[in-house]
Design brief:
alpha+beta; Tetrahydropterin Synthase, Chain A; 4 domains; four-stranded antiparallel beta sheet; 9 helices
């Protein structure tokens, strides 16, 4: 038989493994000590033995046990562990002392208090709806949250807005001690900022500028939280749904259809305008340019004719007979090709003489010649 199998008849003594087990064993021994009489230590009662003369001996033992328990508990509470993604805020006698980074750390027992804060967790607040069964097949519940989503725009229209705000802790000390209920503060400020910004925009502008609205809300929300020293950093503001209320959706759809028809007609009119007006302007400009050209041509012709007349006048003054004959011949050269019948008058001839025009075709008329 091995040494491990050889045990005393009263059994093998079990040693405590953790401080909690040590404290439990000490408490059990204390209960056993006060439940049994000192005269039962030998296992038999002795009625003739005298009672203990010093009652404070038991109290001293009790205080000693209590001190040992407190000491063990203080040693156990002196060490703590900060996991990655967390920071520890240590208070000494109720006043901020330091911020502990991840790892195994030490603090003074009964003097220092520790608060752990997850600084990498992305916290999310939903407005106008709530997520049910988040994941790949997440569903959303919108019933009962109309008071959060209904807002009034600048043109006095009601709009239904649902959005998400995501944030994380940037200053653990401020997050713990500056605001009592940080989550409620984020919700109140987010709703207030969003209502104020939507209330300064028209209905159509809110519907068509979702990204700009989200950026403006994020900037204003971060500014308000910074003024409150909430110790938070806004990550994302995302608008999930922006629609008119269900009660006015049919009328809203009719208005949208009418607006689309109006825009279509306006676009068609602009198309016709872009086709007709430039063409008319080009035609008008062409007419004006032609008029300018005609005026310039007539002026140049007039100047040329007047210059020609002056030149002929000068030649006429130098040689009148020659100039008159030349002008006569030039005029006849222009006129005669267009004349079909020619009459020549002769003094001694009394009747017209026929003249056969051989330069024309056989079917041409006969001209007559009359003596002059």
């Amino acid at each position: 038989m091995s040494n491990q199998d050889q045990q005393p008849p009263w059994g093998k003594k079990k040693k405590p493994q953790t401080p909690e087990e040590m404290v439990a064993q000490l408490i059990k021994k204390l209960q056993d000590y006060f439940s049994d009489s000192p005269q039962k230590k030998s296992g038999q009662e002795n009625p003739n033995s005298p009672s203990p003369a010093n009652p404070f001996a038991s109290i001293g033992k009790l205080l000693g046990i209590i001190l040992v328990v407190l000491l063990l508990q203080g040693v156990y509470a002196s060490f703590y562990k900060i996991t990655p993604g967390e920071v520890g805020v240590v208070l000494r006698l109720g006043k901020y002392s330091r911020t502990a980074e991840p790892g195994l750390r030490f603090k003074f027992p009964y003097i220092d208090d520790l608060y752990k804060v997850d600084v990498e967790k992305i916290r999310k607040e939903e407005f106008g709806f709530r997520s049910r069964f988040p994941g790949q097949k997440s569903s959303f519940d919108r019933k009962g949250y109309h008071m959060e989503s209904l807002m009034l725009t600048a043109d006095k229209n009601v709009i239904n807005v649902a959005w998400i705000v995501q944030y994380r802790v940037s200053d653990p000390q401020a997050f713990l001690f500056k605001i009592k209920n940080v989550r409620q503060a984020v919700r109140d400020i987010s709703e207030s900022v969003t209502r104020r910004i939507v209330g300064n925009m028209d209905f159509d502008y809110v519907l068509s500028n979702r990204d700009l609205l989200a950026a403006t809300v994020k900037q204003e929300l971060q500014k308000e939280l910074k003024n409150l020293q909430a110790g938070l950093s806004i990550g994302t503001v995302q608008f999930q749904d922006i629609n008119p209320p269900d009660q006015v959706k049919p009328a809203f759809n009719e208005v949208n259809e009418a607006d689309q028809d109006m825009k279509r007609l306006v676009n068609e009119a602009e198309e016709i305008y872009n086709q007709k007006i430039p063409r008319a302007r080009g035609k008008a400009k062409q007419i004006v340019e032609e008029a300018h050209g005609y005026a310039v041509a007539r002026i140049n012709d007039a100047k040329g004719e007047s210059q020609r007349f002056l030149s002929i006048l000068t030649e006429y003054k130098n040689a009148p007979e020659v100039t008159k004959r030349r002008m006569y011949l030039e005029t006849m050269r222009k006129v005669l090709p267009a004349v079909e019948s020619i009459y020549i008058m002769d003094k001694g001839q009394q009747t017209p003489l026929p003249l056969l025009n051989l330069s024309r075709g056989s079917g041409s008329t006969t001209s007559f010649r009359q003596a002059k």
